[in-house]
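[job 4471] stage=fold_predict status=RUNNING
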Amino acid sequence: MIFRWLALVSLFVILLVPASAVRAQGYGGGEVECVSRNFSYARCEVPWRDARLVRQLSDTACIRGQNWGIDRGGVWVDRGCGGRFVASGGGHHGGGNSGGWQPGPGWDTRFVVGCASEDYRYRFCAVDLGGAGRAYVSRKISGAQCIEGRTWGWNRAGIWVDQGCAAEFTIDRRWR
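[job 4471] inference complete, writing structure tokens
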């Protein structure tokens, strides 16, 4: 009877653990494991200003600025990258409360950037979209198609283009 009760309580606790806690697993020495499951974006909260990859855990190559990076309060991974990360250089945020940071004036802005796939090759154009930003094609420049998710896409660190897509992208940079 007690065993069943403990099993039910354990199952209940496991179901209450948020998905981010499953993705972000801490290790001794200040390491954090952050993994993009099913090639989806994931963010793992850390108190660091900068990070470095110390061990790749995925078959997909983890390339900073393309499928992993760090912003205020978190390491993010995307498109299959998974790894162990440690603090690098800049130390911790003041106060250690990543939820307390608020961007300064002009952070929530709209602007246009260009990004082009030269010679039909993949290219990543770094643009900070913030925690809840969005990108969309405002003017196609190339003769090639620009189809979101196929020949272009975006994440919080920027825009990627491929297969000859070249366009001007409107960025709605927002923080949550």
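[job 4471] summary: Confidence is low (pLDDT under 50) at residues 11-28, 90-103.
[job 4471] exit 0
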